[in-house]
Amino acid sequence: AQKVTQAQTEISVVEKEDVTLDCVYETRDTTYYLFWYKQPPSGELVFLIRRNSFDEQNEISGRYSWNFQKSTSSFNFTITASQVVDSAVYFCALLQVFGNEKLTFGTGTRLTIIP
Amino acid sequence: GAVVSQHPSRVICKSGTSVKIECRSLDFQATTMFWYRQFPKQSLMLMATSNEGSKATYEQGVEKDKFLINHASLTLSTLTVTSAHPEDSSFYICSARDWGLTGVSYNEQFFGPGTRLTVL
Fold first, then answer.
1. Which residues contact A90 (CB under 8 A, 6 or more apart)?
2. Which residues of A76-112 are buried (b: 16+ CB within 10 A; e: fewer)?
3. Residues of B in contact with A40 (CB under 8 A)
4. Which residues contact B70 (CB under 8 A, 6 or more apart)?
5. Which residues 6+ apart lie within 8 Å of A69 measured at CB?
6. In terms of DSSP bridges, do strands A46-52 and A32-39 run parallel, antiparallel, or are they unpaired?
7. Are A74 and A67 in contact (CB under 8 A)?
8. In Å, how far from its chain's centre is CA A66?
């Protein structure tokens, strides 16, 4: 069975600080995809990144960066120089490629940026 | 591209009534749509997988007679909450998966904006 763990339930940081959101996953599959989504108060899920299991390169997109380490089954997300608009709930998710192709979501991390 | 809409965005109904939620893929054909439920301050839980032209596959613990899913076309799936009760109050989110759309990633699920259901 697949599982995604986001141990940090809530995080608060002061604006302009850097913050890292942790994600640890479990799967028996060798081929899978990992995702990060942002859910602002409006509720709509905003896609941030997708990474397949064969691509361990870290990625940077503006103030966002992701660190994928298969050895520790982690896919952490860092926001640099946080802004108030970054306040949201962030979900990490794992997609099983073969079989039922279900997305398994972590429990989410509520991030609050304090002005 | 790859836009998914949901209607209505909010609905309030009385206990015992039925509510229909529509999920549409606006600019692509979705052979598969997924329905999720999210209770306040909780994660998204998959309710069912809907394939066009066939019966939906429900997750364990989800009552198929209570949550009726119809995926009659490649762009529309509906979720009907029958005889709704206050415990059905939740945020319902659909997603649609495209196949073969140029420039769109394989296995990508595109999410709708969600429907907030309140049962009084």
1. A6, A21, A36, A37, A38, A39, A48, A77, A108, A109, A111
2. bbbbeebeeebbbbbbbbbbbeeeeebbbbbbbbebe
3. none
4. B50, B77, B78, B80
5. A56, A75
6. antiparallel
7. yes
8. 8
Residue type present at position A57: Q
Give the residue among B95, B49, B103 at the shortest CA–CA distance from A44: B95
Q: What is the pLDDT of residues A35-60, one digit of tens each?
A: 999 999 999 999 999 998 988 888 89
Using DSSP's 3-state secondary structure scheme, residue B81 falls into strand
- Return the residue in A103, A104, A109 with the most chain B beta carbons within 10 A, the one to mutate for interface testing: A103
Average pLDDT over residues A3-21: 97
The encoded tokens of residue B17 equal: 């009534």
Report the C-alpha gap between B35 and B120 in whole angstroms.
22
Region for A75 from its dihedrals, namely left if φ exceeds 0, alpha if ψ lies in -120 to 50, beta otherwise:
beta
Q: Look up residue A103 and give its amino acid.
A: L
Nearest CA in chain B to A88: B41
Record: contact A91-B44, CB cut-off 8 A: yes
Q: What is the pLDDT of residues B43-64, one digit of tens each?
A: 999 999 998 888 899 999 999 9
Separation of CA B100 from chain center: 22
Contact between residue A68 and residue A75 where contact means Cβ atoms under 8 Å apart: yes
User: How many other C-beta atoms lie within 10 A of the C-beta of residue B64?
Assistant: 13
Angstrom distance (rounded) from CA B26 to CA B110: 11
